[in-house]
Backbone:
């Protein structure tokens, strides 16, 4: 937090200033934004897959697919609101979120598959929901430094920034 207060005036130089110029606060905000879409898709996929009794792999594939759909959709919504045409908004979303969503999905699905009994627990179980929550927290913690690095290089969520103003 204190780093953000001291480096706030450097944020507009993030493209050439390296990671130090990109605040942890900015990276965390970008990651949280991405996590929102990912979490909606991930939770829906896990709930649908588990409820239908799908194989673990099919459940993970469904979760990952929905995470990308919702992750891109949330980014596109903001960009479209800025008056950008649909095709261009899709390109911005793909550039902004692909690496972030990929890292998140690898982390949270690996966690769900490795937590004993999590995939078989069923949606009425505390184990299922605690595992899912823990996997998303872990994904957030690991993806935030990745996003900080990407933003510092003018990539990832940095490409969306121009449409937020």
Residues:
């Amino acid at each position: 937090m204190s780093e953000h207060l001291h480096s706030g005036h450097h944020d507009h130089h993030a493209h050439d200033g390296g990671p130090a110029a990109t605040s942890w606060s900015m990276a965390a905000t970008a990651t949280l934004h991405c996590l929102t879409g990912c979490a909606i898709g991930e939770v829906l996929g896990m709930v649908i897959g588990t409820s239908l009794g799908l194989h673990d792999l099919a459940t993970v594939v469904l979760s990952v697919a929905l995470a990308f759909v919702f992750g891109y959709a949330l980014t596109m919504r903001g960009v479209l609101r800025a008056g950008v045409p649909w095709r261009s908004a899709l390109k911005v979303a793909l550039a902004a979120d692909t690496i972030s969503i990929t890292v998140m999905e690898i982390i949270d699905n690996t966690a769900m598959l490795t937590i004993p009994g999590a995939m078989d627990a069923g949606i009425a179980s505390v184990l299922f929901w605690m595992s899912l929550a823990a996997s998303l927290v872990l994904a957030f913690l690991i993806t935030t430094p990745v996003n900080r690095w990407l933003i510092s290089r003018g990539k990832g969520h940095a490409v969306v920034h121009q449409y937020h103003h």
Summary: Residues 1-17 have pLDDT under 50 and may be disordered. The first helix runs from residue 2 to 7. The helical segments are 2-7, 14-17, 24-51, 56-81, 86-114, 126-152, 158-161.
